[in-house]
């Protein structure tokens, strides 16, 4: 999971890209980068840390040009601490290409060998984004017959990328002197939205980004999502063309975007994230009522912020008082996406504080969006008890996370997942909760896609079924042995 944005404008884009990355900061906090194009010249700055930490006035002044892209990183491939793996990535041929990527490639071993043995391309990092960039550059090179470059050649190159690359990828690239290219994997696992703004002189400015809130905040009209397998090319003069580049394509977006990753004010695949979370709360309330005596719940409390809509609906449907018992320090990042278990555990107490007046002597139902490693949940249960709670019931708006996620969320190992190989009472004991309620898998899918044109979701971390059909037990074992969370 990362956040990406690309803009083609009639005005300098550096500030708009910076503002967009601030809006997407929740999608990644390890590093960030911006690249702009001034004619045929690229300018780039990237650094570790969050957006406000990474860019100074002198950096912004150097990012000249009316076309650009940006990235906030949450590491799923490579090393989170490696500054050289911050995006964007650049290659100088053909033409010069700069690329950002949200997702995770699942055939990196094969692609690495092909790039060395066949394409004769050098990789300087272990990032799958550098892999994707070199695959695109190589395929584009094969299409170029002269100096000129036309959209058909670009789209044919993207077709070849789809043939070679497996996994999830929402991608934005700049081609020096030509324009901005955006494309999405044939399953549309990771999100990508297109927007535009009409100028008084009749020209059009374009933006493509991970979430629709970027368009709304910058004053762009939301046009549509980039379709699974589709490529969109915007020339530097604002002319946009698109083409479906995958012969087999089907929209199967990641369910975890709606559960946790995306901001509630975004719309993805025609589904409001906020309304999906409300519906998750309605479904969860039915399950809580089925398994928990009402006398065991005095108040319902959310873990701020992403679980708040679900918790409000649980309280309303159960007819139980809703209270905010945990205060959040907004200057600590999202603990789920912090690299390293020690950092996550330390940050829980820095991020949340339990107000004892809301807990003392009460039977508490705590609602969270999900339970992954259990680190945060265990600390929260302990905080509730220390604040004086009489009984603690914990409810998750998502089903048990029992399997690795290989499409762009940092859950590489089954053995670090608290629900793996455990029954629900065993998980409750591990968390220290008196009772534990999970959302049902069928209820999760039904709640999210209700009223939309989406037929199914990518839910591999709950079900162990991987939509691309290329994830084998051998690959999962390799990921566990070679990738740290």
Descriptive notes:
It is built from 17 helices and 22 strands. The chain is globular and about 75 Å long. With 485 residues, it is α+β, with helices and mostly antiparallel strands.
Characterize the main sheet: 7 strands, antiparallel
Q: Helical region count? A: 17
Q: Over all CA atoms, what is the radius of gyration?
A: 23 Å
Which consecutive residue ranges, at least 5 long each, have pLDDT under 50? none
User: Mean of the pLDDT scores?
Assistant: 92
Provide a quick synopsis of the model.
With 485 residues, the protein is an alpha+beta fold. It has helices at 14-23, 51-54, 57-62, 108-117, 128-143, 151-164, 213-218, 255-261, 273-291, 308-318, 341-351, 356-359, 375-386, 424-431, 441-449, 460-463, 473-482, and strands at 3-8, 31-38, 41-48, 67-73, 89-91, 97-105, 167-175, 179-184, 193-198, 204-209, 221-225, 230-235, 240-244, 267-268, 271-272, 299-302, 321-322, 326-328, 352-354, 363-368, 391-396, 435-438. The strands form five sheets. It has a seven-stranded antiparallel sheet. A six-stranded antiparallel sheet has the order 5-6-7-8-12-13. It has a five-stranded parallel sheet with strand order 17-16-20-21-22, sandwiched between helices.
Strands, helices and their partners?
Layout: E1 3-8, H1 14-23, E2 31-38, E3 41-48, H2 51-54, H3 57-62, E4 67-73, E5 89-91, E6 97-105, H4 108-117, H5 128-143, H6 151-164, E7 167-175, E8 179-184, E9 193-198, E10 204-209, H7 213-218, E11 221-225, E12 230-235, E13 240-244, H8 255-261, E14 267-268, E15 271-272, H9 273-291, E16 299-302, H10 308-318, E17 321-322, E18 326-328, H11 341-351, E19 352-354, H12 356-359, E20 363-368, H13 375-386, E21 391-396, H14 424-431, E22 435-438, H15 441-449, H16 460-463, H17 473-482
Parallel strand pairs: 16-17, 16-20, 20-21, 21-22
Antiparallel strand pairs: 1-4, 1-10, 2-3, 2-4, 5-6, 6-7, 7-8, 8-12, 9-10, 9-11, 12-13, 14-15, 18-19
């Amino acid at each position: 999971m990362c956040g990406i944005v690309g803009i083609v404008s009639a005005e300098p884009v550096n500030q708009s890209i910076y503002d967009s990355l601030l809006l997407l900061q929740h999608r990644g906090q390890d590093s960030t980068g911006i690249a702009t194009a001034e004619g045929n010249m690229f300018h780039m700055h990237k650094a570790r840390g969050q957006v406000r930490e990474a860019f100074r006035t002198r950096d912004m002044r150097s990012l000249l040009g009316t076309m650009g892209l940006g990235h906030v990183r949450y590491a799923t491939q490579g090393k989170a601490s490696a500054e050289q793996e911050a995006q964007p990535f650049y290659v100088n041929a053909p033409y010069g290409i700069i690329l950002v990527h949200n997702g995770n490639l699942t055939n990196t071993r094969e692609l690495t060998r092909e790039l060395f043995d066949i394409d004769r391309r050098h990789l300087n990092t272990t990032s799958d984004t550098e892999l994707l960039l070199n695959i695109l550059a190589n395929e584009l090179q094969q299409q170029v017959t002269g100096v000129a470059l036309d959209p058909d050649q670009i789209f044919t190159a993207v077709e070849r990328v789809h043939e070679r690359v497996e996994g999830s990828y929402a991608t934005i690239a700049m081609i020096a002197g030509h324009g901005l290219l955006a494309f999405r994997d044939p399953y549309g696992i990771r999100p990508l939205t297109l927007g535009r703004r009409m100028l008084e002189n009749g020209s059009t400015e374009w933006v493509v980004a991970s979430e629709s809130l970027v368009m709304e905040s910058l004053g762009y009209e939301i046009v549509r999502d980039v379709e699974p397998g589709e490529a969109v090319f915007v020339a530097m003069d604002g002319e946009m063309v698109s083409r479906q580049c995958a012969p087999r394509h089907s929209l199967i977006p990641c369910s975890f975007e709606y559960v946790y990753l995306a901001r509630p004010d975004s719309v993805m695949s025609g589904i409001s994230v906020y309304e999906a979370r409300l519906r998750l709360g309605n479904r969860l309330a039915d399950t809580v009522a089925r398994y928990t005596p009402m006398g065991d719940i005095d108040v319902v409390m959310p873990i701020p912020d992403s679980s708040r809509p679900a918790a409000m609906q649980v309280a309303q449907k159960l007819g139980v008082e809703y209270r905010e018992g945990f205060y959040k320090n907004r200057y600590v990042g999202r603990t789920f996406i912090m690299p390293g278990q020690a950092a996550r555990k330390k940050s829980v107490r820095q991020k949340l504080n339990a107000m004892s007046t809301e807990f003392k002597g009460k039977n508490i139902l705590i609602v969270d969006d999900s339970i992954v490693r259990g680190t945060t949940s265990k600390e929260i249960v302990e905080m509730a008890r220390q604040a004086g709670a009489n009984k603690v019931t914990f409810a998750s708006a998502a089903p048990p996370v029992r399997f690795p996620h290989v499409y762009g969320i940092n859950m590489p190992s089954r053995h670090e997942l608290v629900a793996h190989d455990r029954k629900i009472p065993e998980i409750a004991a591990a968390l220290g909760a008196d009772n534990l309620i999970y959302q049902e898998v069928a209820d999760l899918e039904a709640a999210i896609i209700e009223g939309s044109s989406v037929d199914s979701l990518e839910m591999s971390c709950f079900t162990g079924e991987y939509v691309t059909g290329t994830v084998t037990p051998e690959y999962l074992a390799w990921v566990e042995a070679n990738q740290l969370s």
